[in-house]
Design brief:
By secondary structure, the chain is α+β, with helices and mostly antiparallel strands. The chain folds into five domains: about 170 residues, Ribosomal Protein S5, domain 2; about 70 residues; about 220 residues, Ribosomal Protein S5, domain 2 (2-Layer Sandwich); about 60 residues, K Homology domain, type 1 (Ribosomal Protein S8, Chain: A, domain 1, 2-Layer Sandwich); about 70 residues, OB fold (Dihydrolipoamide Acetyltransferase, E2P) (Beta Barrel). Helix content is about 30%, strand content about 30%. The protein is built from 16 helices and 29 strands. The strands form six sheets. The protein has an eight-stranded antiparallel beta sheet with strand order 8-7-9-10-21-20-18-19, sandwiched between helices. A six-stranded mixed beta sheet has the order 1-2-3-4-6-5. A hairpin with a 2-residue loop joins strand 3 and strand 4. Helix 1 packs parallel to helix 2. It is elongated. It catalyses: RNA(n+1) + phosphate = RNA(n) + a ribonucleoside 5'-diphosphate. One of its GO terms (cellular component) is cytosol. Involved in mRNA degradation. Catalyzes the phosphorolysis of single-stranded polyribonucleotides processively in the 3'- to 5'-direction. Its EC number is 2.7.7.8. InterPro entries: ExoRNase_PH_dom1, ExoRNase_PH_dom2, ExoRNase_PH_dom2_sf, KH_dom, KH_dom_type_1, KH_dom_type_1_sf, NA-bd_OB-fold, PNPase.
C-alpha cells in the first residue's frame, strides 16, 4: 500500500505518492501538481567508480510526447535526442543538488525525471526539480537535503508564484530559486530589465515559499526516509598533504599560481607536479591519488591567498575587471560581427539575418512556444583552452551558455512588426579563462548593433565569484572571476542587464547556500561592472545600432493582405506565386494571417514583387492608370495582363487617338504598356484605353 501526501502550493494542490512505483530504485516519488504528473527517481551504484576524482552525478529530464497527447515528430515516431528545454531543465536540477552530496562520494548517482502528463498551468520542470530533491532525500543515498524550488513571474508589477505557461508568455520575470532550509542555493532568471531591488525581493519571496515546501518534505522524510548507507571515502589523507608540503612548500605553491597568464601557471604547476611524483615514487597508494592531492593543495593555496591575504592570482584588486578590448566588423561579408576580450577570455560573435520563414520550429510540451525567432548559439572548441580535442557537437554546457546569452538579449530586441527578421547569433570561443558566457553576451550585443538590428539598449554581463571561510560572516566576493577562481572558489554568479535593470541571472555554487548579504553584494557588484563595460570598450567600439543593414543581408518588405486573398496570390497549384518569384527572384512567404514577407538582396526586385501582389489583391476600379503586358491580340483589340490573375482588353478604337487598321500596327505581344481603366462591367470584364487623352485625364 503506497502513501500519499498533499499540500496547497500557490493555489494548486501538490500531491506526492511514495512507494507506489519503482520499488527497486533507491528512492522514487510520483509527483502531481494540478494535472501535471512527473516520476522522479534516484538510483546509485553499489560501489564507487574506480579511477575518478569527481562525483559522478547524472541528471535526466525526459519529455514524453504522450504527456500532451501528441505523436513525436520524425520518421520513427519515438522520442529521440533530448530537446534544448530538457537539457536546460536537467542542468537546473543538477545545480542545487550537486553541492548537497558528500564531496568525497564516488558512487554513480542517476536522477531521472519522466514527464507523464502535462497541465499547461502547472510546470513539469518545477515538479521535476521538487521530485528529484525529495526522491534523493528519502533514499539511502547520502544527501544533505532536502532542498526546494519555486518559480516566480511578474505581470503588471505583481509577483506570481509558480506561473503557468500562459502567464509565463506575458510575464516580465521568469525566476527560479532553489533553497535549503537556511540559504539560497541556486538562481536562474530571465527578466525584462528588472531593477536590482525588485529582483532581490522576488528571490526572497521564492526563498520564503521554499521553506514551506521543505517543511512539508521533512514530514514525508521522517515517515518514509531510508537510513543513509555508508560509503568508502575518497578524501586525501592528511599525511599525504604533510609530505607534499615538505617537498613543495606553501610559499612555492603560492608563487607558482600567482600569475595572470594561464599558460605560465599551468607550466609552473606541471613542474611542481613532477617533483611531487618523484617524491612519492615508492608509495603506489599515494601515487594513485596524487593528481587529486595536487589539485586540493593548489585549491587550498588559492583560497587562503584570496580570503586571508586579499590577493588574487593575477594580482588584481577584489573589484577590478581584467583588461578589456572590443571591436566590430571583424569579418567581411557576414551581416554583423564583433570581438570582445576580457583578459584571456575572447569571443568572436557573428550575426546572421534571415526572413521569418527561417525561424526555428519548436516541438515540445509548451503549447505557447512553437517557434523561436532569435537564436543564440555558443561553441567551445578545444583550441580555446589549448586542448587537442575534436568537436563532437554542442554538449550540455554549450547549450546552457548559449541559452543564457540568448535570455540576456531577448528583452532589448525590436518587435517583429518593426524588424521582420529571424536572427541568429553565434559565439565562437577563441580563448577561455573564465566567464565566456558573459563575454558572449557583450560580443553578441555589439554584433547585433553592427548588423543594424535596432536593439533598444546595450546589454553587458559579468560574473562574480566567492570564497568563504568557516562562518557565514567570513567571505569575499570577487568581481570578474577567471578560470582558477571559478574552479577553486565557491560561486559563479552571472548577471546580465542594461543600464536600467537585469535581463538574466545564473548562479552556480559549490557550498550549501548563500546568505542574503552575499546575494545582495554580488548583484550590486555585477551592476557596477556591467556599467563600466558598457560605458567603456563597448561604447568605444559601437555606440548604437547602425541605421543601415549590411549590403549582404537580405532586404525584407512586408505587407498585410486580406486572408480571403491568400489563395489569389498563391494561385492554383502555386502557379501564381511561382510566376512572381520567377520574374523577380524574390523569396515570398505568406502566413495564415495574411502577412506577406518579400525578401531578397535586390530592393528593386522586392518592390516589383510587392507591386504585383498588390495588383492581385487590390480591386480594379475605373479611372486607375496601370502598367501591364500585352499577352494576346485579336482583330478587335489587345488583351493586357494587369496582374497574374487579371487581364483587361483594349479595343482597337482605344489603342490610339488616330485610326488603327490593324492591332499589330500599335502593339505586339510582350510589349509593356500604360493603360487606363475605363470600365469594369457586371461580369467583371475590364475595359482599358491607351489613348493619350484618356491617360492624361
Amino acid at each position: 500500500m503506497y502513501k500519499s501526501y498533499s499540500m496547497e502550493l500557490a493555489g494548486r494542490m501538490l500531491t506526492i505518492d511514495v512507494d507506489r512505483v519503482c520499488a527497486q530504485s533507491n528512492g522514487a516519488v510520483l509527483m502531481h501538481y494540478g494535472d501535471t504528473t512527473v516520476l522522479s527517481t534516484c538510483t546509485a551504484s553499489e560501489k564507487p567508480r574506480d579511477g575518478i576524482d569527481f562525483f559522478p552525478l547524472s541528471v535526466e529530464y525526459e519529455e514524453k510526447m504522450y504527456a500532451v497527447g501528441k505523436f513525436p515528430g520524425g520518421f520513427k515516431k519515438r522520442e529521440g535526442r533530448a530537446s534544448d528545454n530538457a537539457i536546460l531543465t536537467a542542468r537546473v536540477i543538477d545545480r542545487p543538488m550537486r553541492p548537497l552530496f558528500p564531496k568525497d562520494y564516488r558512487n554513480d548517482v542517476l536522477l531521472n525525471n519522466t514527464v507523464l502528463s502535462v497541465d499547461q498551468d502547472a510546470s513539469p520542470e518545477l515538479l521535476a526539480m521538487l521530485g528529484s530533491a525529495l526522491a534523493t532525500s528519502i533514499s539511502d543515498v547520502p544527501f544533505d537535503g532536502p532542498c526546494a524550488t519555486t518559480q516566480v513571474g511578474m505581470i503588471a508589477g505583481e509577483f506570481i508564484l509558480n506561473p503557468g505557461n500562459g502567464e509565463k508568455a506575458v510575464s516580465d520575470l521568469l525566476l527560479t530559486v532553489a533553497s535549503t532550509k537556511e540559504k539560497v542555493i541556486m538562481i536562474e532568471a530571465g527578466a525584462n530589465e528588472l531593477p536590482e531591488e525588485k529582483m532581490i525581493e522576488a528571490i526572497y519571496l521564492a526563498h520564503e515559499t521554499n521553506q514551506q515546501i521543505i517543511g512539508f518534505f521533512e514530514s514525508i522524510i521522517a515517515e518514509c526516509g531510508k537510513e543513509k548507507h555508508s560509503y568508502e571515502s575518497s578524501a586525501i589523507p592528511e599525511a599525504v598533504f604533510e609530505k607534499m608540503k615538505s617537498v613543495v612548500s606553501p610559499e612555492e605553491m603560492e608563487k607558482a599560481v600567482f600569475t595572470d597568464e594561464k599558460q605560465e601557471r599551468d607550466a609552473n604547476i606541471s613542474a611542481l607536479s613532477e617533483r611531487l611524483v618523484e617524491a612519492f615514487q615508492d608509495d603506489e597508494e599515494a601515487l594513485a591519488i596524487l593528481p587529486d592531492a595536487i589539485y586540493q593543495y593548489e585549491k587550498k593555496t588559492v583560497r587562503k591567498m584570496i580570503l586571508k591575504d586579499h590577493k588574487r592570482p593575477d594580482g588584481r584588486a577584489i573589484n577590478e575587471i581584467r583588461p578589456l578590448e572590443s571591436e566590430v566588423d571583424v569579418l567581411p561579408r557576414v551581416h554583423g560581427s564583433a570581438m570582445f576580450k576580457r583578459g584571456q577570455t575572447q569571443i568572436l560573435n557573428i550575426t546572421t539575418l534571415a526572413p521569418l520563414s527561417e525561424v526555428q520550429k519548436v516541438e515540445g510540451m509548451n503549447e505557447f512556444e512553437t517557434e523561436k525567432r532569435y537564436l543564440h548559439q555558443y561553441n567551445f572548441p578545444g583550441y580555446s583552452v589549448g586542448e587537442a580535442k575534436a568537436s563532437r557537437g554542442p554538449g550540455r554546457r554549450e547549450i546552457g551558455h548559449g541559452a543564457l546569452a540568448e535570455k540576456a538579449l531577448i528583452p532589448v530586441l525590436p518587435p517583429v512588426e518593426e524588424f521582420p527578421y529571424a536572427i541568429r547569433s553565434v559565439s565562437e570561443t577563441m580563448e577561455s579563462n573564465g566567464s565566456t558566457s558573459m563575454a558572449s553576451t557583450c560580443a553578441s550585443c555589439m554584433s547585433l548593433m553592427a548588423a543594424g538590428v535596432p536593439i533598444r539598449k546595450p546589454v553587458a554581463g559579468i560574473s562574480c565569484g566567492l570564497v568563504t571561510g568557516d562562518s557565514d560572516d567570513e567571505y569575499l566576493v570577487l568581481t570578474d572571476i577567471q578560470g582558477l577562481e571559478d574552479f577553486f572558489g565557491d560561486m559563479d554568479f552571472k548577471v546580465t542587464g542594461t543600464r536600467d535593470g537585469i535581463t538574466a541571472i545564473q548562479m552556480d555554487i559549490k557550498i550549501h547556500g548563500l546568505t542574503r548579504p552575499i546575494v545582495e553584494e554580488a548583484i550590486k557588484r555585477a551592476r557596477e561592472a556591467r556599467l563600466f563595460i558598457m560605458d567603456g570598450v563597448m561604447k568605444d567600439a559601437i555606440a548604437e545600432p547602425r541605421k543601415e543593414l549590411s549590403p549582404y543581408a537580405p532586404k525584407i518588405i512586408t505587407l498585410q493582405i486580406e486572408t480571403d486573398k491568400i489563395g489569389d496570390v498563391i494561385g492554383k497549384q502555386g502557379k501564381t506565386i511561382t510566376a512572381i518569384i520567377d520574374e523577380t527572384g524574390a523569396k515570398i512567404d505568406i502566413d495564415d494571417s495574411g502577412m506577406v514577407s518579400i525578401s531578397g538582396i535586390d530592393l528593386a526586385a522586392l518592390e516589383r514583387a510587392k507591386e504585383i501582389i498588390l495588383s492581385i489583391v487590390n480591386d480594379i476600379e475605373p479611372g486607375q492608370i496601370l502598367e501591364g503586358t500585352v499577352v494576346r491580340m485579336m482583330n478587335f483589340g489587345a488583351f493586357v495582363q494587369l496582374s497574374p490573375t487579371k487581364d483587361g482588353m483594349v479595343h482597337i478604337s482605344k489603342l490610339s487617338d488616330k485610326r488603327v487598321n490593324e492591332v499589330e500596327d500599335v502593339v505586339h505581344i510582350g510589349d509593356k504598356v500604360r493603360v487606363k481603366v475605363i470600365e469594369v462591367d457586371k461580369m467583371g470584364r475590364i475595359n482599358l484605353s491607351m489613348r493619350p487623352q484618356d491617360l492624361a485625364e
